[in-house]
Amino acid sequence: MGSNKLHKVQKHVQKKKGKNPNLHENSRDTQRLQRASARDDKVNRLTAIREKQNRPYLLRVKYFQTCAESRGWGTFTTPETQILIDGYLQRDNEELAAIQAERRPGRPPSTRETLLKQAQAQEQGEYISGYWVPHLEDAETLKQLKDWSGQWSGLNQLKFIRVTKEGVRKESAFPPKGLS
């Protein structure tokens, strides 16, 4: 996917120079190949960064898809959605407790423990201001969630809301930005 430009340039140089091209170190063709390679590296790097940023949201939507499936794709009320959110926020508690139990007294927390605590604190903060979830009270959204294949690009079809810890429900947008 990402090496498309490089492949085109390689193909063009090969067509022009023959099967075994001997390129001069600073020739135009060598520079074109280097630019195409750098461009493809940049695209691949940015794609990897974007996928890493989107992964938590994909896992979150997958969790709610699984919950809706186990319930038979019926709609949820706001308190039921809050129960699901609480369950999702506690998903790492067992791992965190195990890590803390195996740590010797007086030792600093491991990197994994610190990361889990930071992620939990960040998600708790998001829940206080409004946790971004699929609109599980909307039958059409549930139908689309049922057909969702797990890809980021498929999420733009779904409706999203933000649910606060107090139970206030606000409309939201995709992709999640700030408190939208």
Automatic annotation (TrEMBL):
It comes from the Eukaryota. Residues 1-19 have a biased composition (Basic residues). InterPro entries: Tma16, Tma16_sf. Residues 1-42 are annotated as: Disordered. Pfam families: Tma16. It comes from Lophiotrema nucula. One of its GO terms (cellular component) is nucleus. Belongs to the TMA16 family. This is Translation machinery-associated protein 16. Residues 25-42 have a biased composition (Basic and acidic residues). The lineage of its organism: Eukaryota, Fungi, Dikarya, Ascomycota, Pezizomycotina.
